[in-house]
Batch of 2 targets.
Target 1
Amino acid sequence: MAQSQQKTNPGRFFEDYAVGDVLKHAVPRTVSGGERALYHALYPARHALYSSDSFAQGCGLASSPIDDLAAFHVVFGKTVPDVSLNAVANLGYAEGRWLIPVYPGDTLRSESEVIGVKQNSNGKTGVVYVRTRGLNQRDEVVMEYVRWVMVRKSDLDAPAPEPVVPELKKGLDAADLVIPEGLDFSAYDFDLAGEPHRWGDYEIGEQIDHVDGVTIEEAEHMMATRLWQNTAKVHFDLSFRPDGRLIYGGHVISMARALSFNGLANAQMIVGLNGGAHANPCFAGDTIKAWSEVLDKSETAAPGVGAVRLRLVATKGGAPFELRGADGKYLPDVLLDLDYWVLMPM
Amino acid sequence: MAQSQQKTNPGRFFEDYAVGDVLKHAVPRTVSGGERALYHALYPARHALYSSDSFAQGCGLASSPIDDLAAFHVVFGKTVPDVSLNAVANLGYAEGRWLIPVYPGDTLRSESEVIGVKQNSNGKTGVVYVRTRGLNQRDEVVMEYVRWVMVRKSDLDAPAPEPVVPELKKGLDAADLVIPEGLDFSAYDFDLAGEPHRWGDYEIGEQIDHVDGVTIEEAEHMMATRLWQNTAKVHFDLSFRPDGRLIYGGHVISMARALSFNGLANAQMIVGLNGGAHANPCFAGDTIKAWSEVLDKSETAAPGVGAVRLRLVATKGGAPFELRGADGKYLPDVLLDLDYWVLMPM
Amino acid sequence: MAQSQQKTNPGRFFEDYAVGDVLKHAVPRTVSGGERALYHALYPARHALYSSDSFAQGCGLASSPIDDLAAFHVVFGKTVPDVSLNAVANLGYAEGRWLIPVYPGDTLRSESEVIGVKQNSNGKTGVVYVRTRGLNQRDEVVMEYVRWVMVRKSDLDAPAPEPVVPELKKGLDAADLVIPEGLDFSAYDFDLAGEPHRWGDYEIGEQIDHVDGVTIEEAEHMMATRLWQNTAKVHFDLSFRPDGRLIYGGHVISMARALSFNGLANAQMIVGLNGGAHANPCFAGDTIKAWSEVLDKSETAAPGVGAVRLRLVATKGGAPFELRGADGKYLPDVLLDLDYWVLMPM
């Protein structure tokens, strides 16, 4: 009898990527109210625009979209089998933009273009840069971002490719942001949204401790990660990771963003991802808390809509507002350092 | 750099409530089949009217509504940041009525009117009475109930308000109950509902042991509580409650009600909440069982529809039908003592 | 006061079954996108036809159906209170066929016909054979299967019935399989499906190690089992099973099938269940892995659609491809041995 492992996906190794390749990722997904309900069960998400059709309609949208981070997770999850199955490390994000809200009934798929490769000096690994796009059933791009990962070589004798390192923006300018069509915060209901603080109430440099915490359970992070069809075994198989199942970094992002409601209830729509680092690994039993810092602000052309650039930090201990040690490295209790743009009523 | 906690919600203290105040609670919510599926995943809920569109249509409704207790949880969850964030104890419920079934696609919001305040003699706390209403996207009241809680004072020097204690009914009369429009049990299918016992088969004073039990897990009660956007930190943050995350009382109510299917499969629609006490705290690892007692019965004007008043008791040990000790206090294994009205085929 | 346990369901005992009886099972269920989202959260399910409306439409269907195993679980769950509440053992399955895909919005109910009874020589138990059918809201049979269970007698003095043992096929012939109306794989998108392997790439006798593993959590198997309204207490009540809550066998089936995506991504639609054994019990903490063996292949009349008969084995340890010991018995790490037919692009 033939015993085959060649039918299973071994993932791509560093030498399998070439600049200009377009990877068409598998398993498109139709989202529904089921994904929204699960998102609200898995995270303490309370932003009104993503909770209520009526509220979203009051803001000029057709109905309440799927959470922006849920859309990100769906798009991201599809890339894992082609991009990060043999990754040693997830090195960074840049130039992330949400272009069109995703609604129940939409079907998403993902594509990634290889935009950079650079072999490391040890000859065993290399860095791969991809620009990933999520597309809906009308082939419209709903979001895009650049990610770079360190990937192992399988064949150490494969020649090093010509190094290509893309020039990436340190952060998006406000002018790069795309405001969803029709968005209008001029009749925004602050009572229903949960807090009175508007765009003008936040100062650059201001820091906010979001106070609340959530202790993480194995069942929850696995359900979340599977929902996005991210099936990387490090998150699920304790026999593969006897020290503990590593929690998908996106679970920490969504948890911290949901916790940030307390102090940023009106930071409704995420439109830009400037960068992000998963500073330390997260495991079940950790209690996640979050704090934010206002990095920048800008007006927009949409009625009543302002943009705020925020740092969102997730921790598993320690005091708020502490990020790096004297050596410039992230403190051991810091899980996430995320830099993003949101839209807020003015 | 400014470090602000003033942007987060500190909750209201006793001196912040005045009789006549109307609190417009935040974060309206649109419900879908996702909430229904999760309700059935989190509780062993089997009442046919809430499981099948066809069955509900056979009872004169447009389709299968969201579980009555799910509607209650959605309405209740919104009140937590305004009513019980600084509560020392949840003291009681009264005059609860379900007025209009909630269907997938409906958007719910909540309002509470302060109907009583009474400072305690210690000068440190007081009791606040609110009448809460849940409204749908057509501004129709779908349910209402009175709740009273003991709340801390922040400013101990704040003067005691004129005490106002509302007169509340010990229990609703059958005439107070609102039967959903069109409800008709004259062609009720007992086979599909799961049990042959009709209204006439239950006697006042009869007690029913529901036999089944469920051992509670952290992930489940947190998912349930978040789904209702109740984000009180006692339920989620083990660093805040090192002795164990306290389980939301509503999780125990829904679990006990679902377990009561075994013996009360035809107790379909909850229409009245006469009162209720969370007798002891519940923690993960507890095994919940339930028993019921028939307190009262009444006919209704709707075809084939009778009303039954039930006591529903949830326990985490001990024998069924034991409620209070010789001292008149709830036994330590009693979690819940709920008094409610349901509709049943005659 | 009357204390009644007679209102709860004691389940049927062996002497309560007679050949020809038709059991109309309770609690019909309407499924929605909520069930689909939960299925994807509970299992690493990635088959594209069950994930994307667009992909399903590209295969000639109206939209993406509910997973075939989810439909099986819904149908099966309803039978538990009438068939297996007093079962000592679930002995086997045969002649299972999926006849019509189940879509969000469909309402399912179940009926079982008793087709065999045979008392065991010990006089204390007997074997009951039932043919179960799942029906939708148009009274169309969407699936059917035969199951036989060993059931306790309650009255040991009840006379042994005339033994009737139905003749059951050892396996369905390809000609027995029903191909969903309109199914057409001639424009099948292998990139979006996730693997290039088509019907012609699989050989009879070939074995595939699916590589990935999932460590099981209590919260997950209980949520899954409740979602299918299977409320057998062995799965939920630790006070009833102090050695551990026994995991519903269907949870293992769905987990193994989802894991088999890695190597069988194009084995899209399950259309036949030839047989199956739950070889050993599964408990929380076990890590499930899976391997498959190609047992048979056949062409079909539908355009581009081939059928493959597979053995799917789930394990909680040990090496792949090991099934039975020298004594012919299943090895202790084998959880499941399932024999089924799937449809695959040619």
Target 2
Amino acid sequence: IDDKNEQKAKEYLKDLHPADIAELYQALNLDEAEFIYRLLDSEKAADVLMELDEDDRKKLLKRLPNEMIAKQFIDHLDTDDAVDLIRELDEEAQEEILSHIDDVEQAGDIVDLLKYDEDTAGGLMGTEMVVVNENWSMPECLKEMRIQAEDMDEIYYVYVVDDDERLKGVFPLKKMITNPSVSKIKHVMKKDPVSVKTDTPIEEVAQAFEKYDLVAVPVIDSIGRLVGRITVDDVMDEVREQAEREYQLASGLSQDVESTDTIFTQTSARLPWLLIGMFGGLANSVILGNFEAGFVSNPAMALFIPLIGGTGGNVGIQSSAIVVQGLANGSFSLRNSGKQILKELGVALINACMISALVFVYNWIRMGNNGVTISVSLSLFSVVIFASIFGTIVPMTLERFKIDPAIATGPFITITNDIIGMLIYMSISSTLA
Amino acid sequence: IDDKNEQKAKEYLKDLHPADIAELYQALNLDEAEFIYRLLDSEKAADVLMELDEDDRKKLLKRLPNEMIAKQFIDHLDTDDAVDLIRELDEEAQEEILSHIDDVEQAGDIVDLLKYDEDTAGGLMGTEMVVVNENWSMPECLKEMRIQAEDMDEIYYVYVVDDDERLKGVFPLKKMITNPSVSKIKHVMKKDPVSVKTDTPIEEVAQAFEKYDLVAVPVIDSIGRLVGRITVDDVMDEVREQAEREYQLASGLSQDVESTDTIFTQTSARLPWLLIGMFGGLANSVILGNFEAGFVSNPAMALFIPLIGGTGGNVGIQSSAIVVQGLANGSFSLRNSGKQILKELGVALINACMISALVFVYNWIRMGNNGVTISVSLSLFSVVIFASIFGTIVPMTLERFKIDPAIATGPFITITNDIIGMLIYMSISSTLA
């Protein structure tokens, strides 16, 4: 590649998968990358484009004229990928590109798909699929399929509709080969297939795929008409991203950052959370400031500040993580929230008793049975109970108000529990003192 | 179901997907569940069994004789599911069940599969697939396929091997329908298909599925012979579980717990981490105890303990989460570790300057330019730098020693940073005092 031997490079690229070319592309500088890009045929170039990172794709698209984007890429992409690509551009570019698409039917499909919310089945689906009528015979279907499937990548199911385009069944491709028959398709298809609606949230689509072990699912509109299909690769990305997002939020990262991002990008995702933590820490210093005299008369009080703050934070994170994950993978529903809070209270009581008893024994041996020994254990007990319930209720409440509960699991809950912990500790200490 | 109307219940169950029956089953008591279970035919019963939670499945299997497990379930399961099921039983039961399997070929496959490590492609694969020879013609392949595919659930690819059973190519099912031809299969198949080896770790298998948008991947042995296939549904479970595990470890949950687990199970997953946190807190109290006199002469020192401990914890979690996630999704490799540490140092410097400067200004206004103001900001600066580098290096080191780096992201790193933070703060304060 370095010596720009076109013939050799072309040969080499021909055998590579688009995902590998995308990786290669990202390792090169922009000049070399453009050289390679010109060697690819349009279809492969379009596939490589979709495999690039969003940032790199944007950079490349900015250098290209809109007409070329429409003719070179959009024409060769599945509608769902085309919609993803167009969504990444600004409105002006969107309109110009749409006007340059040669295939009017595809342009129409894309315009329709752009109307759906990105976070619903409608926003994830594509329109490339093989559709047959329930009253056709198997040979008719085969003939129709050969026409429809000509320029589709891969097909796993044939969808069966009635005369009003309502989804009636599916037909696994395998059966076409193993059980060829002359009967009407409606007698051999699988009836009542699993399907999702255009407004089904993406999380529920992913849950359906996992529950029913699907590789593709048909999407229907509000009156049951077949309007598209979602394939498993799009859903798998979704499952990964969703789980990663939860983890990132829990770790105090406010955007999707990777180790490969620049220092500036990383800082902008991390510093805000650290500043929130800083304000929490300063708030704590104000609270503790009210008890400054107590530290003079009883300096041992200060020694247990990290223990109480840390325990509250650890307990709160555990409780909220269980709720957030349960809501995400569908194992927990808000209908059981009363039961869940009670159960959490049970767990909290055991944890609180164990921890406060152990610390009491330790402090009793170390310092004897004085005010600090008692107030530390009493505070620990209260903090564990409070942090457990608080960590359970906050994500539930956010979910109820349709706010992503994952934002509750990160520094936010640690800091709140830290502050409440200090308030409890200082109140109990000063009451007992 | 309540009034045990067999006919009606049977009718109702017939139309339900195994995953839905499994859900229904888990909502019922054991008597009702057994009643339903007896109404299902063996194949459906086997599918329902695999959809149950591991705990419920174990409970049910314990009540059944081993011979019945072999004949009723194993015979109707795909080899990969059968292996999963058998792995859950103790050794004695395993041998008895294997001896009861009627189909000797299936029993042999299961014994072979049990030899592979659970966490590799070999442990995840099944042997149900359609295999054809590269020298056959298309009509011969179709005929062979009809025989092989008879009792397989779903097929997406036909795998092509040479006379020595080495994998040569794949053939999408779709092409059989759209391009029927009489030429030899080796001239129309897709050559050099993406494949994995039996000893490829599960994480890499999942990465291959995501990168190449696969629905199934062939598995080859060390000399390239085709030995099995892995389907996307098994991999999707893997992706979800892996991401959930990271999140759980980061949240201080030592096992896979769900909101539906009992109080006892939840406590046993949570209390150990809280106890580790408790020991950390007590260790901190010992460190702070050495400076007890300092709190008498300068009580303001105590006010900033939560700020410094909390900041160290927050920074450390961020740094380690970025490394852990990068290692898991393949975007980060140990080869770049030097570069990564330098980049982290850059981020840390910006964060440290911002936070210590802001806190300095705040404290200067609040208390004037005294020893505490200076030592708090100096400590914050050192703690941010230390926690960033420590949080980056620990997961890298664990990965190098083949220990799961995710265990570093939870309470462990928070507690360590908390303790180091106190040591730094106390040393700086006492030096300046």
